[in-house]
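Usage

Read records sequentially. Each one opens with the input sequence:
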Amino acid sequence: MMFATLYIPDFHLQSQLRLRPEWRDLPVALLEGPQDLTAKERGKSRIFQLTQEAKLHGVSPGITATRAQAKCPRVLLVPRQPEDEEAAREALWECAAEITRDFEASGPGLVTLDLHGVRQDVQKLASGRIDWLRRLGLRAQMGLADNPDLAFLAARLANPVFLFSGTSTQIHEQLAPLPVTALQPPPDWLRLFQLWGIQTVGDLGALPRHELVERLGPSAGRCWDQAHGCSRRLLRLVRAPEVYRESMDLEIPTDSTEPLLTLLHRFLERISARLTSAHVAAGSMELVLTLENSPTHRRTFRIPEPAREVEVLFRILQTHLERFKSPSPVVAIALEAFPTRVLNGQTQLFARSWKDSNRLADTLARVEALLGTERVGTPQGGLSHRPDSFRMHPFSLDASPHSDQIPKPSPPSLTGVPPGPLPLTGVPPGPLPLTGVPPGPLPLTGVPPGPLPLTGVPP
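and closes with the structure output:
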């Protein structure tokens, strides 16, 4: 197996449903066009994508918003959200990069992967990646085939994984029931195909290739090759950016921390899954709260011990929000994690360290909230013998709790002693004489003059 296509149906709509799961069972229709439409322009906008519940009420893609409301009065008309689509695209790229770094962004909600060099069971790997996306709120399908275009058609047939195998004739028979729109021909070709009575891929494949190329050009030949599963092309590879950010604009401003904590927990679930797939951990986080009538609140959290567990990261944010007093309602929220390598090596084998650095940091944050930042830290003695003379220094989680180093003693302080050398009272200046000793060399008493003979040696 050489190629795979990861496909998210109704990608633009799913990018919003994953953040608003309560909409999945409602009639929701996504409108074409930008967000800042007037009421008149909004009524003329056409339906782009819609949920299954909206289809059951007679709403279909391509009709205007006014007609959709006439068919289903309780249909929820929503504009596209570029921020949500960008976040979903990053999640899809992260999923593809976990399988292989050689993949192509073939379209919105569509990536094609080159599986050369992948040694794992491809179908088992595909099922695992689809489950990973499902946990992020995205419903995906994957097709496997011997060429990129055939893998894309397999993804259209997948539920949730489909594998094309067999001869070219057998593959063409499997492709025949697909609508001709699955080949993504130009719009003018679709009108021409309708005049010719071509509705399915099998109808197009039944036409002579050379006559189709003479009528429509070389591109029609590539379309005919896709219908027979024999097209070949090179992938335009991309690289997924290492950005771990989630954001959301609130429809109703809030000044309560409970909905913010619920959103942050969802954000962390998605960020943690992406950190795990990239084999990294969060070294720090940045929380941004956009306020309605006040400056933006921005706070960076340094994580003492890099982690990617949801509950560990959530406890840091929860502690901050519990003591945060917002001057005005929150209208938008964003959370970004900055990755770092996971330190799995054993360091300082015989040294003791903090049992849980992140829990200790959370405890210190709670104590600071009660007593104040200036009253929490490590006391250090001053240059005085007074028992209450000390200074408070910020507590450092990088230091070991049990250090083997002997603390340096503080210099002694002599109270009331003037600076400079101390004079000796009553002693005259100059050298001091030795009393009772005559001047000059001292004689050796009882020793005769002259050279002294060696004992036992005759003269």
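Summary fields computed downstream for this record:
- The first strand starts at residue 3 and ends at 7.
- The chain is about 35% helix and 20% strand.
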